[in-house]
């Protein structure tokens, strides 16, 4: 039985080492669209296919749609991050969910806005910006601050005490990470606003992606 377009896309993502969120950002797709399509093995509309092929020009359209030919185009140029190259660093909107879980600042991906050209962040591996909403990381980060995030591939190494963005099963959060002495399979998450946001543990297995915060942009 031949594979579907969705299955071939999943195969390409595994080959490139990218997850649903990375592809969503690069191709400027609706949040959750790719994850839902892969989970249900449902079809992907032509408009989304065009965006994916534009974001990843090395991907062979014929192979993706029909399975014929090779996955990667012959003599294809290295894949560039279209958002960074043409539009600067993309801003991913976020908002806080009051009363949700531990009351933490949640990172919610809704849409990709125009990118920002920030010379000071060039060469630091920053792939996206998020806007803080909430007070759990105050006074380090205030409501409205833009955090410059560098995604990490190796989740086995953390700089303890540094601020990270964690994409978890219950949403994404911004926290300082520390080792959990009681359980090596967990991480201990700390807020800077310790009075109202006590530390809590999170299983490493529930963390789907990690980015370290390498800079902040603040307006008075």
Keywords:
220 residues, alpha+beta, 434 Repressor (Amino-terminal Domain), Umud Fragment, subunit A, 2 domains, 9-stranded mixed beta sheet, 6 helices, 23% strand, globular, transcription, DNA-binding
Low-pLDDT residue spans: 80-86, 94-113
Number of strands: 9
Class per helix and strand makeup: alpha+beta
In DSSP terms, counting alpha (H) and pi (I) runs of 4 or more, how many helices?
6
Describe the protein in words.
The chain has 220 residues and is of the alpha+beta class. It folds into two domains: 5-80, 434 Repressor (Amino-terminal Domain) (Orthogonal Bundle); 87-217, Ribbon (Umud Fragment, subunit A), CATH 2.10.109.10. The chain has helices at 5-16, 20-27, 33-40, 46-55, 61-66, 82-87, and strands at 91-92, 106-107, 128-131, 146-152, 163-168, 171-179, 186-190, 200-203, 207-217. Strands 1, 2, 3, 4, 5, 6, 7, 8 and 9 form a nine-stranded mixed beta sheet that branches. Strand 5 (163-168) and strand 6 (171-179) form a beta hairpin.
Brief characterization of the structure:
The protein is α+β, with helices and mostly antiparallel strands and 220 residues long.
What is this structure's SSE topology?
Elements: H1 5-16, H2 20-27, H3 33-40, H4 46-55, H5 61-66, H6 82-87, E1 91-92, E2 106-107, E3 128-131, E4 146-152, E5 163-168, E6 171-179, E7 186-190, E8 200-203, E9 207-217
Parallel strand pairs: 1-3
Antiparallel strand pairs: 2-6, 3-4, 4-9, 5-6, 5-9, 6-7, 7-8
């Amino acid at each position: 039985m031949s594979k579907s377009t969705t299955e071939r896309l999943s195969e390409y993502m595994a080959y490139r080492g990218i997850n649903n969120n990375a592809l969503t950002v690069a191709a400027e797709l609706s949040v959750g669209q790719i994850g839902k399509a892969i989970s249900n093995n449902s079809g992907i509309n032509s408009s989304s296919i065009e965006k994916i092929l534009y974001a990843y020009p090395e991907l062979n359209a014929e192979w993706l749609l029909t399975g014929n030919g090779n996955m990667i185009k012959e003599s294809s140029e290295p894949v560039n991050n279209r958002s960074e190259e043409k539009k600067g660093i993309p801003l991913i909107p976020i908002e806080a969910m009051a009363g949700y879980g531990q009351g933490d600042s949640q990172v919610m991906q809704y849409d990709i806005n125009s990118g920002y050209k920030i010379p000071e962040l060039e060469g630091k591996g920053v792939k996206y910006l998020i806007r803080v909403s909430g007070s759990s990381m105050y006074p380090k980060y205030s409501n409205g601050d833009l955090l410059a995030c560098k995604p990490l591939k190796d989740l086995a190494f953390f700089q303890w005490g540094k601020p990270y963005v964690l994409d978890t099963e219950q949403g994404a959060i911004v926290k300082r990470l520390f080792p959990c002495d009681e359980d090596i399979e967990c991480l201990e998450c700390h807020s800077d606003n310790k009075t109202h946001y006590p530390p809590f543990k999170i299983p490493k297995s529930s963390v789907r992606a990690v980015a370290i915060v390498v800079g902040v942009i603040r307006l008075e």
